[in-house]
Amino acid sequence: MKIAIIQTKPRKGDRDANVRDLIDAFKQLHEDPPDLVALPEAALTGYFLEGGVYELAETAAAFARRLGAAWRASGARKPVEIVSGFFENDEGTYYNSAVYAKLDPSGAAQIVHVHRKLFLPTYGVFDEERFHSRGRRLETFGTAFGRAAIMICEDAWHGIVPTIAAVKGARVFLIPSASPGRGIGTPGELESIGRWRSLLQNYASEHGVFIIYAGLAGFEGGKGMTGSSQIIGPRGEVIVSAGALEACIVRARIDLAEIDVARAGLPLLGDLHAVLPDLLAELENPSAGEIPSEMRR
To answer: Is the pLDDT of residue 163 over 90?
Structure first.
């Protein structure tokens, strides 16, 4: 399976210019066409739009058509699957969303799945919940490469989300992200970059999955996004990674059979399937697991 991550560095609010840049990036893929293209959160608009969200948000169908038109305009000769973040307008309700779609060289676009961001940060420089509604479901879905799940940025900072995705059968985690840089305590690297890499490596090795992380780059209103797109293998190894600052394309070829090998060697997901019913039962009835008082003596 051949993957290309297009790490975009969008001009804030200038979608037309950003689409032109995307077409140029697509053209660079045609000599060795990938099977899957991954784009960051808010890939074609920029992230810190605030009230500008209401002008640039669009339906999932319209955004998929925009991606399909760009694929056609690039002169593509083969179909491709793609995941990308965008701001969604669903009949007046606004979401920070990501679409997974199949694009045809004719420009046709078939939506496979739409994920709406679950966790909307409202701390520090973030104010997402002021402008967006939150998603309420985490679903896995079928692709040409097996079941996958999408998590948008902070969704992946809550360990229960990747855990549920793995339990529901996802073998590939797709994570579009727009992460401002934070923390200067680590020599040579912002703390937030190292924290992301550590999280992704832990999730990949715990659940035996591939993780495709597409990070937004560039500066918006003095806030620097930290790019650092990467692909993590099912043993937690970093297969390929990008720098923090620039627009670029990161490519890799992965063997999905490695998932089965990794899970056989470290069957933590299988163990979780066995124990999960007891853990859920205890959550629903906390007193059920208490030791009777006569047994404590």
So the answer is: yes
- Rounded Cα–Cα distance for residues 195 and 274 (Å): 30
The three-state secondary structure class of 123 is coil
CA distances from 190 to 32, 113, 164, 183, 253 (A): 34, 33, 29, 6, 28
Angle of helix 268-284 versus helix 191-207 axis, rounded to 10: 100
Could you give the 3-state DSSP secondary structure of residue 137? coil
Q: Which residues pair with 2 in a beta bridge?
A: 253
* 251-295 confidence digits (pLDDT tens): 999 999 999 999 999 999 999 999 999 999 999 887 766 666 666
Q: What does the alpha-carbon distance between residue 89 and residue 175 come to, in Å, rounded to a whole number?
A: 21
pLDDT value for 293: 66
How far apart are alpha carbons 242 and 226 in whole angstroms?
10
The pLDDT value recorded for residue 188 is 76
Spatial contact of 98 and 149, defined as CB atoms under 8 Å apart: no
The reported pTM is: 0.94
Residues 15 and 45 sit within 8 Å (Cβ to Cβ): yes
